[in-house]
Structure formats: structure tokens, C-alpha cells
Amino acid sequence: QVQLVESGGGLVQAGGSLTLSCTTSGIIFSINAMGWYRQAPGKQREWVATITSDGNTGYADSVKGRFTISRANAKNTVYLQMNSLKPEDTAVYYCKGSSSWGQGTQVTVSS
Predict the structure, then answer these.
(1) Contact 17, 85 (CB under 8 A)
(2) Which of 9, 57, 64, 84 has the fewest C-beta atoms lying within 10 Å of its C-beta?
(3) 30 pLDDT band (50/70/90 cuts)?
């Protein structure tokens, strides 16, 4: 049974930082690319960042230079370090791996 569990969301002021975590089970984590997505109220889910099995990363233009995705294969966990947060980053953040999704964690950035 595949499970992806996100954590680390919360309320933060603009300019602040948060680190999201996504811990997985039921997949061979080390061989899977992992991604973070987000969905703001009234909007479609959008891609945020991806990290491949060998550590290559990619970012949406809206978060490039502010967010960093990383992974710890020994912990079956992928992270999203978010700095210089803006109100427009407010969304539910989801991780994805092996075609499975987590339940999401809410990030709210106040102005």
C-alpha cells in the first residue's frame, strides 16, 4: 500500500520560511522522481518542483530562486524548503511519487 504523508504546513507572514516534508511508504523511494504541487482556492493544481532519482531538480518559474526541493533516500522523504514566501504562495501543497499523491498540507502566507 502506497502512502505519502505531507507535513510542515502552517501560517507564516510574507517574507517568512517554511519547510515541508513528505514521507513515503510502499514505494521504492530511491528510484522514483518526486514532485511537489500546489492548489490555491479556485485554481487548478500546478506543478511546483521535481527532483529526480539522481538529484536533478526543476522548478516552476514562480518559485525559482525561493524554493528548494531535496530528498533523503535513507528516510524515504522529500522536502520543500520555501523562503521569501508571498501571499500568492498560499495553497494546499501536495507531494507526488510513483503516480500516487499525498493528502496535502495547507500553507497560508499573510501579507
Answers:
(1) yes
(2) 64
(3) confident
Helix, strand, coil percent content, the chain, rounded in steps of 5: 10, 55, 40
User: What's 40's DSSP letter?
Assistant: -
Question: For residues 28, 4, 87 and 19, what is the CA-based torsion angle, rounded to 10 degrees?
Answer: -60
End-to-end C-alpha distance for the chain, whole angstroms? 40
What is the per-residue pLDDT across 35-77, written as a single tens digit (0 to 9) for each? 999 999 999 999 999 999 999 999 999 999 999 999 999 999 9
The cell for 45 is 493544481
Q: Residue 94 is placed in which grid cell? A: 501536495
